[in-house]
Here is the input.
Amino acid sequence: MKATMTVTVLALASGSAVAGFSAPNSHSWPMEHVMVTFDGNAVSAHANNDASSAIQLLRFEGEVYDGASSVMNDTYYSDQYGWVPDGFISLGADEFLWIERVSSMAGLNVYEGGMRMMRDMHSYDAILGTDGSDDAWMWGGTMVHNWYSADELGSYEVTYEVFVGDADGNAYSQYASDMVTLYFDAVPSPAGAAVLGLGGLVAARRRRA
Ligand SMILES: [Cu+2]
Here is the structure.
């Protein structure tokens, strides 16, 4: 019922219905990656964006997200940032990659995503300190785009430590960790941004068909 309502709203706005729009959308944003390497001694994590090229968080009026993804309703959000391995990462059976929030600005939330093309399978679990969740999050070492959101306009940043730890998140002291800071700007969306985005999506699909 909820899904039907969402499609109806969008159909009214755009003149055509697109199925599967009841979850947050990647809106054709190019991917940005935090590149992570491990050379057997040290982890390193690198992001290209600084405060002057922060990732934009956008809100899309009229979109309603169902189920677990309803945590994204009425927020400014983006899934642009993904964690990716830069080269081959070799770990022992009892070694895992962890990402732990060191500091973050109030009002920035993170929900668990996954591969961008598989967003129906994303859990949208609060992670990395959001809503009282553990500050540490185990990363499986394949590309994961988590969902960042904010309720209010403004600039946000979060700093993470990336380390090798055991299954419980206890860091192994023989391996050096690294820190990385991500920057976000929650900005007003131009009126009708969701409609324009949807129109682009429909056009792209038609061209491919
Ligand atoms: Cu990616």
User: Anything to note?
Assistant: The two ends are 29 Å apart (CA to CA). The CA atoms of residues 22 and 74 lie 13 Å apart.
